[in-house]
Write a structure and sequence with these properties.
By secondary structure, the protein is α/β, with parallel strands linked by helices. The protein is 61% helix and 15% strand. It starts with a helix and ends in a 13-residue tail after the last strand.
Length: 398
């Protein structure tokens, strides 16, 4: 870490700050371009001279890695730009787009390698063994392993998905080149030409790596659910404030590293003065702004805590909802009505993977409320949520 700090971090900066990430990305990209250019030139020349299609394809793979490094450099440069009128949430997602382009390049290389390998399998052309070629491949494996460990370490330090994609690509290249090197010696010792078959195997392996990167990146761009540790951090911070009885409807939007936006409904005693509730919301938002990379917006929800009738009806509603499905949770509970008839108004949070239709769930809950007391009705809003983003309030046990 001390060496990392000396090279990339200025006084007062965090390892995950946009400036540090941009410097790390530029350095990694520049180093990758230099090393991949040398490897590509050596392999393409050696493959052309010996007729080894797998070596030639491996060299072309290194050449496309140079393109990936250029894309990564551009992505880091763009992600470091501040927010502007057209992009008020910043440009950090450019790094995800860079990782997406890298994945597509890897897949294109895999297809091209598969085509060339098939042509070699059905041709009568024989490969020529060369000790120089073996040395080039061995050096390539060592260089790619160095790039894997180097980029993986940098990716962990600055939490970069583009560098993670580059590291994954490097280790797949190392394995692919090692396989080509092994087939070279097998052919030398046995006389069985495995060049085309090994090239096809390498193509499948490279395609698997590219597909994994593509799946991960698309998931992020589509709005993947936040990590459980982020949810726990938010819950712990919000619930640590005096006067907070629970939270729900937590939503976290990821616009890239250092660009998390969140909204949350915070439950407080209905008797809390409106100015005190406003001050509480401000304090929560300020705490997140000063201690985390999360821009938080708080909505205050009042809870009636000292009315025996409301508490009793809330318990009865929770029992009806639990009878439909124990994983369901209620919030925003209110009682509206007069002396002879009352409506219980509340929201029901259900898991995303629940197979029941929202309308059917609401009907079963309304029927359950009516059966428990003919003078009670229910106005139910059913919403699908990540249930990790829901925290109980104490009144659930009243």
């Amino acid at each position: 870490m001390s060496m990392f700090a000396k090279c990339f971090i200025k006084e007062g900066e965090k390892p995950t700050s946009p400036a540090v990430r941009e410097r790390v990305g530029k350095f990694s990209g520049g180093l990758g371009i230099a090393l991949n250019t040398l490897l590509a030139a050596a392999k393409i020349a050696a493959g052309a001279l010996t007729g080894m299609i797998s070596v030639l394809a491996d060299g072309l793979n290194n050449l496309t890695d140079c393109g990936s490094n250029v894309v990564s450099l551009i992505g880091f440069k763009m992600s470091g730009k501040p927010a502007d009128k057209e992009h008020p949430f910043g440009h950090q997602r450019a790094e995800s787009i860079a990782a997406l382009v890298i994945a597509l390049i890897v897949l294109v290389v895999a297809v091209e390698l598969a085509i060339q390998s098939a042509e070699k399998i059905f041709s009568a052309e024989e490969s020529k063994f060369s000790i120089v070629l073996a040395i080039i491949l061995a050096v390539s494996v060592a260089v790619k392993l160095f790039m894997f460990f180097f980029n993986r370490r940098l990716a962990k330090k600055v939490d970069s998905e583009a560098l993670k994609a580059t590291a994954a690509d490097s280790v797949s290249d190392a394995i692919a080149t090692a396989a080509v090197l092994l087939s070279l010696f097998i052919t030398r010792w046995t006389g069985v030409d495995l060049d085309g078959y090994m090239g096809a195997a390498v193509a499948v392996f490279i395609a698997f790596t590219g597909g994994s990167i593509l799946k991960e990146t698309i998931s992020r761009l589509l709005g993947r659910a936040p990590a459980p540790e982020i949810i726990r951090e938010i819950q712990d911070k919000v619930l640590s404030f005096p006067g907070v009885h629970g939270l729900h409807d937590l939503a976290v939007h990821n616009y890239g590293q250092n660009k998390l936006y969140a909204t949350v409904h915070v439950e407080v005693d209905s008797h809390m003065p409106i100015m005190a509730a406003h001050d509480l919301a401000d304090e929560i938002e300020k705490k997140f702004a000063s201690e985390t990379d999360i821009s938080m917006t708080v909505h205050i929800d009042p809870l009636v805590l000292d009315d025996p009738k409301v508490n009793r009806l809330r318990r009865e509603a929770e029992q009806v909802v639990a009878a439909v499905d124990p994983s369901f949770r209620i919030h925003d509970f209110r009682v509206i009505g007069g002396q002879t008839h009352s409506n219980l108004v509340f929201d029901v949070a259900i898991p995303f993977d629940c197979k029941q239709e929202e309308s059917e769930i609401a009907r079963r809950i309304r029927d359950g409320i009516s059966l428990s007391d003919e003078n009670l009705g229910a106005v139910v809003t059913v919403e699908r949520q990540n249930m990790d983003e829901y925290s109980f309030h104490p009144t659930a046990k009243l």
